[in-house]
Amino acid sequence: MKDYKRKLVLGFTLIELLVVISIISLLSSVVLSSLRSAREKANDTKSKQQLSNLRAAAALYYDTTGQMTYGPAVAGNESSGSGATATIGMGCATNMFASASIRSFMLSSNYPTTANGTGRCTVTVDRKDFTASVRLSNGTYWCVDSKGVARVQSSAQGNYAGSCSELS
After folding, report:
1. What Rg value do the Cα atoms of the chain yield, rounded?
2. 48 lies in which domain range?
3. Of 14, 32, 137, 141, which is most buried, counting CB atoms within 10 Å of its CB?
């Protein structure tokens, strides 16, 4: 009889086990939500860096074409491609943005937070300025232009926009 009572005393009650399980689940949900937030920030940082690299490649394109222009105008409402050639948005698959030195910066597969068509790329009618923007995880847009501006906007830039300050 004595051995039987000892086994009951040494075990955990159902209530104790349920309390421990609920504490563990609460802590894991907090950690997982923190990880999701950190992942979104990292993805946004990668998108911003990609557009920064695009600006450098566009400067080289401007200097090496021999015309001192960004090529034919891009309204920003042209096709964005599809499949493996899908780009970050409208206009990002045409003219300057389709050149070999810039194309890799336009592919949506290089942007973790971007679905096809959420950004926009433009070249002004006078061919002297360009803009490119991509949608971030919080719904705002990161915009870079030929003037060196890089900033957050509430929407993608307008057609033929020459700078990130010209909103649609």
Report:
1. 26
2. 14-153
3. 141
Tally of structural domains, the chain: 1
Whole-number pLDDT of residue 8? 52
> Minimal CA–CA distance to 155: which of 147, 163, 164, 113?
164
**Residue 112's pLDDT band (cuts 50, 70, 90):** confident
- The continuous run of DSSP H or E covering 65 comes out as none
DSSP code at position 128: S
The Cα–Cα gap between 111 and 99 comes to 19
First-to-last CA distance in the chain?
84
CA distances from 150 to 7, 106, 124 (A): 69, 16, 18
- Position 94 in a domain: yes
160: its two tokens: 């033929």
Structure tokens at 37: 């937030």
Q: Give 121's contacts (C-beta < 8 A, 6+ positions apart).
A: 74, 76, 87, 88, 89, 90, 91, 92, 97, 106, 130, 131, 132, 133
Determine the average pLDDT of the residues in 46-74: 88
pTM of the model: 0.76
The answer to whether residue 81 is domain-embedded is yes
**Which pLDDT score is estimated for 22?**
95
